[in-house]
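User: I'm putting together notes for a lab meeting next week and I want to include a structural view of one of the chains we've been expressing. I don't have a solved structure, so I'd like a prediction I can at least talk through. The sequence is below, exactly as it appears in our construct file.
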Amino acid sequence: MYNEQRRRYFTLPDYTRSDRNNVVLEIYCHSIDENYSKLLIEKKDDLNLTKLILLDKIQKKQSITDEGAKLLKSKGLIEGRKPNYYISEKLAEITRQKASYTKNKGFDKEYYQNLIVKHIKNHNYASRLEIDELLLNILPDHKNEKQRKIYINNIISEMAGTLSENIGSRTKSKLILLKIIKEKHINKIKQCT
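Assistant: Thanks for the context. Below is the predicted structure for the 193-residue chain, given as structure tokens.
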């Protein structure tokens, strides 16, 4: 039984509820979304039961084994990093989940940086709270709030020195564009002459 479960990348049975007097074997069953599976089978010829069950778990946002993830990634069926896997672009097309795929995949960093730059141009500066408010809800769906804040930190760090400068105290810093600083500096020079 163990070998069959492992061969199909299913959760292995366990004995964790056993005690000195009783042996309790738990075998996990797999319910599968039949409509999702039928759609995949109709559109994709090379999917066996194992891959279907693993993909079903991915779309239900359930965890899968490392071996299962490796199998699906090698076939180009999923993307993302453990534990935040999501179906690949080609499967999103087949299963009519393109919008969901885009939400999971997110946009490139340039897109988010452009939003920050536009905000700063409109308002002369952006506080971290404003940047969080601007970006948190549009970052990839598969990231939790902590991961989203780290991602925003990385975006801001990449902007430092080239596009923007952080001014103010550490707790109440404001991000401003270097271009705005230069323009203000030029204006001050013009006023002095």
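A couple of points you could mention at the meeting. The mean pLDDT is 76. Residues 109-192 form a domain with the Arc Repressor Mutant, subunit A fold (CATH 1.10.10).

User: Perfect, that's what I needed.
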